């Protein structure tokens, strides 16, 4: 927020064209990471047997759409690890 004539004025949203190249690269990079996490988590969920998933599969399916947190949570906490010696 900025002040104009002693009053707070919203600067509004920046347009894509107004962003710096580094900012654009950062946004595109984070979007690519988020989409990759979503695809990997959903593929793992949909190809896993029910016994290998902690909790309900349908709940994890929807939770995976929560930005970053959902897919990472499923990949870390939602899968049962096989015990191999």
Could you outline the blueprint of secondary structure elements for this entry?
Elements (H helix, E strand, L loop, with lengths): L1 E3 L2 E3 L11 H27 L9 H7 L5 H10 L7
Helix pairs in contact: 1-3
Structure description:
One of its GO terms (cellular component) is plasma membrane. By secondary structure, the protein is mainly alpha-helical. It has one domain (about 20-80). It is built from 3 helices and 2 strands. Strands 1-2 form a two-stranded antiparallel ribbon. The protein is elongated. The relative contact order is 0.12. The model has no long low-confidence stretch (mean pLDDT about 90).
> Radius of gyration over alpha carbons?
20 Å
Based on CA inertia axes, which overall geometry fits? elongated
Q: What about the largest sheet?
A: 2 strands, antiparallel
Secondary structure: number of strands? 2
Number of helices: 3
- The chain-level mean pLDDT equals 88
- Helices and strands, in order, run as EEHHH
The amount of beta strand, in percent, is 5-15%
Query: How many structural domains in the coordinates?
Result: 1
N-to-C span:
59 Å
Structural class of the helices, strands and pairings?
mainly alpha
How would you write the strand order of the largest sheet?
A: 1-2
Unreliable stretches covering 5 or more consecutive residues: none
Q: Considering DSSP H and I runs of 4 or more, what fraction of the residues is helical? A: 40-55%
């Amino acid at each position: 927020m900025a002040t104009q004539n002693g009053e707070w004025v919203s600067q509004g949203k920046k347009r894509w064209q107004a962003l710096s190249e580094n900012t654009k690269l950062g946004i595109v990079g984070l979007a690519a990471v988020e989409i990759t996490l979503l695809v990997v988590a959903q593929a793992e969920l949909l190809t896993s047997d029910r016994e290998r998933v902690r909790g309900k599969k349908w709940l994890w399916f929807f939770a995976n759409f929560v930005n970053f947190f959902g897919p990472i949570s499923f990949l870390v906490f939602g899968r049962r690890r096989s015990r191999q010696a």
